[in-house]
From TrEMBL:
It is an enzyme of class 2 (transferase). Its main location: cytoplasm. It comes from Natronoarchaeum philippinense. Belongs to the GHMP kinase family. Mevalonate kinase subfamily. Its EC number is 2.7.1.36. GO terms for molecular function: ATP binding; galactokinase activity; magnesium ion binding; mevalonate kinase activity. Residues 326-347 are annotated as: Disordered. GO terms for cellular component: cytosol. This is Mevalonate kinase. Residues 101-180 form the GHMP kinase N-terminal domain.
Amino acid sequence: MTTSSAPGKVYLFGEHAVVYGEPAVPCAIERRARVTVDRRDDDLLRVHADDLSLDGFTVEYSGASEGTPDVAVSESLIDAAMGYVDAAVEQARAAVAERRDDGPDPETIGFDITIESEIPLGAGLGSSAAVTVAGIDAATRELGVELSPEEVADRAFRAEYDVQDGEASRADTFCSAMGGAVWVEGDECRTIETPDLPIVVGFDGGAGDTGALVAGVRQLREEYGFAADTVEAIGDIVREGEQALQSGDVAELGRLMNFNHGLLEALGVSSRSLDRMVWAARDAGAEGAKLTGAGGGGCVVALDETDETGTALRFTPGCEEAFRAELDRDGVRAEPATDGGQSEGDA
Ligand code: MEV
């Protein structure tokens, strides 16, 4: 039995624009997905997830990946989560097959997989990337192969790319595998030095449909030159943002985040609850605030040294939870085995 974990993330800058080759800076936070993989004697894949939750948002199901789980949230979210698990296992098997000429064909090896996550599904905090990254790491190590974090990131990107029909950048998966703040621009991915940041997250309890939101931006960009210019302007903000990050200028980072949110709003990926939380944070004195991830619902990220933003968010209609998030400098990592594995009766 092997367990790995990987962090979720917030986007300081650049979501959506990164899909078109502009840079983005996501930043890992100390909310993790843990995936435990236990090799089976047959070729079946069984997945068990007790808790893909923040408080107030809990998915409970137990079932074979090909079966219909007993769910407490939208089935499309569960289908999406299962798609990432299947794709992660496929990538892990391929990575092992590349390194082995003998032994059983990895395609014929089945697994019991248990997912425990502190990251809400589809809410802009990189739940799918964290599960995919931790899943690939755990499954390969369970078969005796250790991949570098860079290779885990690359394989996780390929898994996301397949599940999201080609509408995925390397940003979420690279950030989750490497930890810290990262720069992603097309295929160029690198970690960047960053001071600790006073990150506050507000969560509206909802989720956006990443595929539909990315498709909406693509359509706007094709239809209007000014929408394409807006995407490029987000790239300019990210370039400024990297300098502010390196000099630790939190006030400038906040201003740029506000600007970035305005442009995402113009591209149609914000929502009333996200805008309300963004304004609550700004009114409470945050240096800046923006939606994070695909948008449509889910989370906002704000910068505030004080507790004012967190308090204001907790009193904002539509905000289900607000929490301070520490930057997580660790990416994917092996975890000590727990009894979190699935028992025979679960499946
Ligand atoms: C989703 O977390 C971020 C998007 O930019 C899509 C992607 O980069 O794959 C909207």
